[in-house]
Design brief:
This protein has four domains: 66 residues; 122 residues, Immunoglobulins (Immunoglobulin-like, Sandwich), CATH 2.60.40; 70 residues, no CATH class; 63 residues, no CATH class. It has 347 residues and is an alpha+beta fold. β6 and β7 form a beta hairpin. The longest helix has 62 residues. It is built from one helix and 25 strands. The protein has a five-stranded antiparallel sheet, with no helix packed on it. Strands 2-8-4-5 form a four-stranded antiparallel sheet, with no helix packed on it.
Length: 347
C-alpha cells in the first residue's frame, strides 16, 4: 500500500534532483499565470477602446440628427400662414316661386263679363299668357292684368261659350293639397330665412299661430289638418351659404409659402361633412402681391372656399384647415349666425 508523503522544499537539498524538478515546476506555473493575465488585460483594453469609439461615434451621430431635427422644427415654425382680418360668409338668397301652370281654366265667356280671376291670386309679373278658345291674346291690348290679385280684365267681353285659359307662374309654391288628416307639408327648398314665410290654404293666408315651421328643413306642421281638396301654398325666401372668404399673410420672419393648387391642402369639416382636400376654391392676390403663387413677406392673398354644396345652416359651426407644404396647420373655427344675411362677418 502506498502512502502520500507531504514534503516541503525546505526538507530537500538544493542539489537533489527532486528539489530541482519541484522548483522548475513551480517556476513554470508562475510564468504561465502571468502571461494569461497580460493577455486578459490587453483584451480588456482593446474592448474598452472599441466601446469608447462606438459611444463617441454614436454621440456625434445623435448630435447631428438632433441638429437636423431642430433645423426642421425651426423651418416648420418659420413658414406659417396667418389669417388677416375678418372671415366672411356669403349667402345667396332666393325667393321661392311656384311651378309654371299650363292651360289653367279661368272661366267661360257670356258676352257681358269682362273680369275673370285666375285660380291663383299672386302672379309673377309678365309670366302669363291668356287664350280665348286657344287663341293667344295680347297683353295691354286685348286685356290688362292685376298681378297682386290674379285678375284679368278683357277689353272686350269674351263671347258666350268661349273658353278662357291661362299659362302663368304663381309667386307662391304649391306644397300639397289638404285631405282632412295630413298636418305636415314640406317646402321644396330649405333652409328658410326666418320670418320670410307666408302660408296659404285655399289662397287664404294662415295665421302664424296656426302652424309651426322648421326653418332648417322646411317642414310646415299645422295645428289642424287643412280641409280636403284645398291647396296648401307657401311664399318664402330660402338661402345657400355659398362661399367663405378670408385673407392670409406670411407670418413675420417666415420663408415664402407656396399656395399653388396642390401645394396648399385645404380641409373642410362640419358635423355632417368632411372634405379632406377642397379643390373648389379661388385664390386671388391682393395689394402688392406679385404674379407668382408664393406668399412672401408683405403680401396678402385672398382665399374663397365654395361651400354651396355643404348644406350649412344658421347657427352651425364649421372648421377650415390650411396645410402648406412647409409649416404648421392654420385652423379656422367659425359659426354661421342664426340670422342669415347676404354677407356676414364670422366670429
Amino acid at each position: 500500500m502506498h502512502r502520500a508523503v507531504l514534503i516541503s522544499l525546505s526538507d530537500l537539498k538544493r542539489g537533489d534532483s527532486l528539489y530541482l524538478r519541484a522548483w522548475d515546476l513551480f517556476r513554470v506555473q508562475r510564468g504561465i499565470t502571468g502571461l494569461e493575465t497580460a493577455i486578459v488585460l490587453i483584451a480588456f483594453v482593446v474592448v474598452a477602446s472599441v466601446f469608447a469609439f462606438g459611444v463617441l461615434s454614436l454621440g456625434l451621430f445623435s448630435s447631428d440628427k438632433a441638429k437636423e431635427t431642430v433645423r426642421a422644427g425651426m423651418e416648420e415654425a418659420r413658414s406659417t400662414l396667418e389669417v388677416q382680418g375678418s372671415v366672411i360668409a356669403k349667402a345667396t338668397l332666393t325667393t321661392a316661386t311656384g311651378s309654371i301652370l299650363v292651360a289653367e281654366s279661368v272661366g267661360t265667356g257670356n258676352g257681358n263679363k269682362k273680369t275673370f280671376s285666375l285660380p291663383n291670386d299672386q302672379i309673377i309679373p309678365n309670366s302669363e299668357t291668356i287664350y280665348l278658345d286657344g287663341a293667344l291674346q295680347t297683353r295691354e291690348v286685348d286685356y290688362t292684368m292685376s298681378y297682386s290679385g290674379g285678375v284679368v280684365t278683357f277689353t272686350t267681353a269674351p263671347a258666350s261659350g268661349v273658353v278662357i285659359t291661362a299659362d302663368y307662374q304663381p309667386t307662391v309654391e304649391l306644397i300639397g293639397t289638404g285631405d282632412d288628416s295630413t298636418t305636415t307639408f314640406t317646402l321644396a327648398n330649405s333652409p328658410v330665412i326666418s320670418g320670410s314665410e307666408t302660408i296659404y290654404v285655399d289662397v287664404t293666408e294662415v295665421a302664424r299661430s296656426e302652424y309651426t315651421i322648421n326653418h332648417d328643413t322646411g317642414v310646415v306642421t299645422f295645428n289642424t289638418a287643412p280641409p280636403d281638396g284645398e291647396a296648401v301654398e307657401a311664399k318664402y325666401t330660402y338661402y345657400t351659404i355659398s362661399e367663405v372668404t378670408f385673407l392670409v399673410g406670411n407670418a413675420a420672419g417666415s420663408q415664402p409659402i407656396n399656395l399653388a393648387p396642390g401645394a396648399l391642402i385645404v380641409t373642410y369639416i362640419d358635423k355632417d361633412t368632411l372634405v379632406t382636400n377642397v379643390t373648389d376654391l379661388t385664390l386671388t392676390k391682393a395689394g402688392n402681391a406679385d404674379a407668382d403663387n408664393l406668399l412672401e413677406r408683405g403680401e396678402v392673398f385672398g382665399i374663397a372656399v365654395n361651400t354651396s354644396t355643404y348644406g350649412l345652416v344658421g347657427g352651425q359651426q364649421f372648421t377650415i384647415e390650411l396645410k402648406p407644404e412647409v409649416g404648421a396647420v392654420t385652423t379656422l373655427n367659425r359659426t354661421i349666425p342664426v340670422g342669415v344675411d347676404p354677407a356676414m362677418v364670422l366670429h
